[in-house]
Task: structure prediction
Amino acid sequence: MGGKLFFVGTPIGNLKDITLRALEILSGVDIILAEDKRRTVILLNHYGIKKELISFNSKNWRKKARFVVDRLKQGKKIALVTDSGMPGVSDPGGELARICWKEGIEMDVIPGPSALTSVVAVSGLIHSSFLFLGFIPRGKKRRKLFRGIKDSTHPIVFFESPTRIIETFRDMLNIFGDVDVFVAREMTKVNQEFMKGKLSEILRELESREKILGEFTIVVGTIS
Result:
């Protein structure tokens, strides 16, 4: 009997934000593929789950894919999780799905939390369609990207790190102008913070801080 690959959604911050079905699957599989084993083991320990953990991320997925496919063909049940949220969003989960479709391997998805859908729900800037950029590049590539979408008629959503958020906002202000933005920092965590207003206002607030921590999810209102 063939194996099965499960794409399992995990919390984006608060460990309580996990479904009963996700816990059932994680408890029942043979192997769990983790973007960062150190982060995944915190979740598993919290719920008393002990499984074989294998690293599977953007740096090693090409080397690990064959191993995963071989184990699946041997009948193993394998779950894929990311550091937070749903696999396949800004991680190599989509590449593994493509390979498994080609190899005829059975797959299932266990829906769960997502920073993308969470920020869409709370931002008040998105009403139907939007453009999702994932983690954006840095420097010249970022500015080229922004210039290419500055005439977009759709709101834009992307992820950014605390070390680059200020320079990213400066580039946005120069290219997009003083647009409406919604910023979510550390969503669902103890230090969760939401900010909404003009880009220049949010930028000034961030520039005034001695230290910026936490991952950011940003919504840019319609530019043109």
